[in-house]
Structures are given as structure tokens and as C-alpha cells.
Amino acid sequence: DLTDVHFIAGIDFTFTGAVITSLAPGERVLIVCNQSAFEARYGTGHSARIAGEFAPTRLDNAGERLHLVGALGVTIADFTYNDKHPWPTESGFAGYSLVLKSVAVPSPDYSLADNWRSSTELGGNPDSSDSTLLVGDPDADDDQDHFNKLLEHALGSSDFNPADTNETFRTSLANLKVDDVFDDYLTITHRRNLAADDVVIIPELSVDLVTWLSGEANLIFVSETHQGDGTSLVTYRTAFPQNPAADSRVFLRLRVSMP
User: Fold this and answer.
1) CA-CA-CA-CA dihedral for 217, 79, 192, 198, to nearest 10
2) Which of 101, 97, 56, 60 has the alpha carbon at shortest distance from 80?
3) Which of 117, 149, 196, 240 pairs with 136 at a CA distance of 20 to 30 A?
């Protein structure tokens, strides 16, 4: 029952008197800024799920606080989103929507950036989830390319095409500007399946192939670029510059797991 459920920060909207005042388990509802403009972009196929229009202005792409409360004033969701890492940066300006990961439901921490991602499609995915979860044995390797099903699912490649793993990840020595100084850093770039809500990809560093280290003390996020095909390219760099002539060897890898 959505009666008296309303926002007290971010937008002005109450479900009292709205077109939709109740939801069945798992159902979705849309609140739009301008229904005519929404239907001009997405068609009328979603119109039955529109509860009404919010006021007074559109949401801020750069982030703001949203606070939704129930009939007795009890908080349902209260968080401040952003468009800077670790929040999905592509949702801030490139036309992709901010999507709550399916694995975060039904009891998500909305304020945790890792529970959100960019939509797989430009323009977003109203009234639906574009999440794709792993099906089958995660250790299987149907195309015999030495990439198991879990790894291919995480990287957005096919387990039926052995050539599809080309360029899913690479390492390189890149000249990057850090704190206004250019220097050489070892980088790792990997493709990420945006719809793979059920996996975690963590880059790791080692100098002996025995002890593997992660976290910002070792590898620092550089960028994530949406590819427009449901995947993104994510790049990390070593925390310190690398001198191949003087430094000992450094190894990088990706660790993929299902939380």
C-alpha cells in the first residue's frame, strides 16, 4: 500500500491520489518529470506503470539527496547519489541511467555506491531490469578457450566462441598525469559486463606470484568508459610509478568471484 508514501527530499511527489497506489511483490512503478516527454522518448508501452509526475524540476545529474518516507514518516530510502567514482560516472552525463543492482534487492543499502551501476542501454531501461545472472556451472569451459563460464560472464564474452575473449583485458605501461606530474604507471584494463550483477571483479598486484594485493594502496581506479554494447572498459593503475629498468617485475591479474 503506497498511500501517504512520499518524498521529502530530492523531488516533490506523494502517492496519495496518484494513478498507482499499491504494488505487488516485485512490481515496479515509474515517477516521471513530464509524461508527454517520457512517452515521446520511450513510447506508451510503459504508461500503465506511471504513477504520476514529480515536481518541481528534473533530478540533478551531478547527484543529490533522495529521501522517501512511509505513511508514518518512517524512512524507506534515504541516500545521496553522485556521478563521481565509485558511483557509476557514465550515469552522470552520457545518457545512461543509474540502476540498482539486482543482487542488492530486496534489502539494499541505497547509499552504497557499489550497489549501483550504469544501465546497459543508452537512455536507460524504465520499468525493467537489464540484469543477466550466470546460468550453469561457473567452472565450465564450453568453448575450451581456458576462460571458464564465470570469467566470460564477468567480462561480457561468449563461452561458445573461443575468439571472443580477445581484448577482454590487457596490461600496459602508460604515461599518466598524476598530481600535475607525468610519469609511467603499469595499468590493467578489462572489459566488464554491466548486466552481471552477480559477480565482483577485483584487480590484484603481486611481485612474487605468491602474495596478491588489492585496494587503493596498490591499484588506483583511473576510468570506466561505457562501450554502448552492454559492457564498459575499466582501467586501474599502480599506486606508484614504474621504472622497468630499475624496478623488480610486477604482475597484475583479475580476480572474479560471486559474493
Assistant:
1) 100
2) 60
3) 117
The single residue listed with the C-alpha cell 587503493 is 216
Q: Which residue has the cell 504513477?
A: 51
What tens digit of pLDDT does each residue of 52-88 get? Answer: 999 877 788 788 899 999 988 899 999 999 988 899 9
> Which stretches of the chain score pLDDT less than 50?
none
At 112, the amino acid letter reads L
SS3 sequence of the chain: CCCCCEEEECCECECCCCCCCCCCCCCCCEEECCHHHHHHHHCCCCHHHEEEECECCCCCCCCCEEEEECCCCCEEEEEECCCCCCCCHHHHCCCCCEEECHHHCCCCCCCCHHHEEECCCCCCCCCCCCCCCCCCCCCCCCCCCCCCHHHHHHHCCCCCCHHHHCCCEEEEEEEEEECCEEEEEEEEEEEEECCCCCCEEEEEEECCCCCCECCCCCEEEEEEEECCCCEEEEEEEECCCCCCCCCCCCEEEEEEECC
